Amino acid sequence: MITGTVNADFEPLISISIRRVNGEVLTQEAIVDTGFNGWLSLPPDAIAELNLKWKRRGRAILGDGSECVFSVYEAVVVWDGALRTIPVDEAGSEPLVGMSLMEGYQLTIQVAEDGYVELRKDDQT
Predict the structure, then answer these.
(1) N or C end of the chain: smaller count of CB under 10 Å?
(2) 9: Cβ–Cβ under 8 A, 6 or more apart, which residues?
(3) Burial class of residue 94 in the structure, from the number of CB atoms within 10 Å of its CB (0-12 exposed, 13-18 middle, 19+ buried)
(4) Do the bridges between strand 53-61 and strand 40-42 make them parallel or antiparallel, or are there none, so unpaired?
(5) What is the span of the domain harbouring residue 28?
(6) Rounded to an integer, what distance in angstroms lies between the CA atom of residue 98 and that of residue 10?
(7) Which candidate, 91, 110, 79, places its Cα nearest to that of 36?
(8) pLDDT (0 to 100) of residue 124
(9) What is the CATH number of the domain that holds 58?
């Protein structure tokens, strides 16, 4: 199970641990974003600090209908106690956890400042 809290802006936050190439782990707060169908997005400075491996270019249609092109990297994250290799989209925003990373989990959010956020593995997947 993964837990977090809702901040004063009503953003659901969880901590995600990302491994550097040398094996050290960087723990980063990330917003749970149900409107993002990717895995994880990180800003350029975090990607540089982690020295993530570039994989390819990606394209996305944003909420306002515009299209953007971005770099996609590869990272190893600790997700619910297990190591997972996932794609990471470079974005000039706060770190976001997307629906692809949360696949197979039930998301519960208590929508209130300091409310709880819980991701629980769905036993039916």
Answers:
(1) C
(2) none
(3) middle
(4) unpaired
(5) 2-121
(6) 17
(7) 91
(8) 60
(9) 2.40.70.10
Q: Looking at this protein, which amino acid is placed at residue 3?
A: T
Nearest to 119 by CA among 29, 10, 15: 15
User: Is this model's pTM higher than 0.85 or not?
Assistant: yes
Q: Which two tokens stand for residue 80?
A: 């619910």
What's the CA gap between 41 and 27, in Å, rounded? Answer: 14
SS3 per residue for the chain: CEEEEECCCCCEEEEEEEECCCCCEEEEEEEECCCCCCCEEECHHHHHHHCCEEEEEEEEECCCCCEEEEEEEEEEEEECCEEEEEEEEECCCCCEECHHHHCCEEEEECCCCCCEEEEEECCCC
What dihedral do alpha carbons 8, 10, 11, 14 form, nearest 10°?
70
Q: Could you read off the pLDDT tens digit of each residue along the chain, which spans 125 residues? A: 999 999 999 999 999 999 987 888 999 999 999 999 999 999 999 999 999 999 999 988 877 888 889 999 999 999 999 999 999 999 988 999 999 999 999 999 999 999 999 999 987 65
